[in-house]
Request: fold
Amino acid sequence: MLGLIISLIIIGLIAGAIARLLVPGRQSLSIPMTILIGIIGSFVGGFLGDLIFHKDSTEGALQPSGIIGSIIGAVIVLLIWTRVGSRSTVR
Reply:
């Protein structure tokens, strides 16, 4: 269990950092938020992988994915985060 949590944090940091590099524009996110974006992206990538490829369907639709799926999911989550966050600011 502890190994899963540590691996989710490490994969989340890597996926979140790469997603921040791939998404254009400035994101004012802290390191814990980058890790959280990566972890959420891992579950989004796992859901999309299950939805598209029907692989590992015995584990359920909500499962963590590998590094590539985590990066793709983190990019999707970060794009949604920047679009929703830009609308809520007062100018």
About this structure: The chain has one domain: 2-88. Residues 2-88 form one domain. Residues 31-53 form the longest helix (23 residues). The mean pLDDT is 84.
